[in-house]
Amino acid sequence: MQEPEKIALELLETEQAYVSRLHLLDQVFYAELMKEAKTRKTVPEEVVKMIFSNISSIYQFHAKFFLPELQKRMEDWSCNPRIGDVIQKLAPFLKMYGEYVKNFDKALELLTAWSEKSPPFQELISDIQKREVCASLTLQHHMLEPVQRIPRYELLLQEYVRKLPPTSPDRDGAEKALEMIFMVAKHSNAAIAEMERLQNLWVVYQRLGLEDDIVDPSNELIKEGPVQKITHKSSTSEKYLFLFNNMLLYCVPKVIQVGAEFQVHLRIDVDGLKVRELRDSQLPHTFLVSGKQRTLELQAR
């Protein structure tokens, strides 16, 4: 057996194993926990839906479309030795994974929280985990499988392209398929990065007291940290700066931290902002920030 055929066969075998994992997640865990939520109300239906995200669509796609196509192709390998075209059909649908991957951390948090909150919910999960089909692995472990599947396709396909003879009829198709899988993996990583950015931004806005004219999802936080405001040569007072891509927020830490941690004293546009280091032997690390709204003399730690 030639190397490319071996790799194509490995793709088929791992796909068969993967589909049985998806079946376990969707048709066993999700179906039984959903039934429990509907009949015994031990956990809200919404929570079960959020834990499993769009696993049903992912399962249907692999079981009814991708796996059968792959099986058919491997049966005809002797007269049509290629998988590039099959993977090209698959690639656009892998964008479905963006939603699953983005939701993954939240799903695990919900699973942990509700397992503590609802003993019957935890009990049902434990019962399913004891079945032979689970191979002594936890629900969390099985939930990780879809997250790892796209990188797995990427690795197998890279190896396949590497082992293809230059004259192979699948050369063009496989290279194009690899490019498409690569873009999908990037898409799914970008979705995670964007979600993390928005979460971090939201935390900053909460610390600032959610001021209307500051809360904007398109802002990017570049740096934050404490500074001293120099009032006159002998005295300083503690302040805090948040530098965004479009504004510098000059804040005062609140003594009583109810709700917000800081009060915004001044907002200076980044447009036209100048920063100049001051050489002062008595006051090291001092600098001047001057913008349209104000000029401040500050000292860093």
From TrEMBL:
Gene3D superfamilies: Dbl homology (DH) domain, Pleckstrin-homology domain (PH domain)/Phosphotyrosine-binding domain (PTB). Pfam families: RhoGEF (PF00621), SOS1_NGEF_PH (PF22697). CDD domains: RhoGEF. Its main location: cytoplasm. The keyword Transport does not apply. InterPro entries: DBL_dom_sf, DH_dom, FYVE_RhoGEF_PH, PH-like_dom_sf, PH_domain, SOS1_NGEF_PH. Transmembrane segments: none annotated. SUPFAM superfamilies: DBL homology domain (DH-domain), PH domain-like. The keyword Ribosomal protein does not apply. GO terms for biological process: cytoskeleton organization; filopodium assembly. Keywords: Cytoplasm, Cytoskeleton, Metal-binding, Phosphoprotein, Repeat, Zinc, Zinc-finger. GO terms for cellular component: cytoplasm; cytoskeleton. It is found in: Cytoplasm, Cytoskeleton. Residues 3-191 form the DH domain. It comes from the Eukaryota. GO terms for molecular function: guanyl-nucleotide exchange factor activity; zinc ion binding. Residues 220-301 form the PH domain. This is FGD2 protein. It comes from Tricholaema leucomelas (pied barbet).
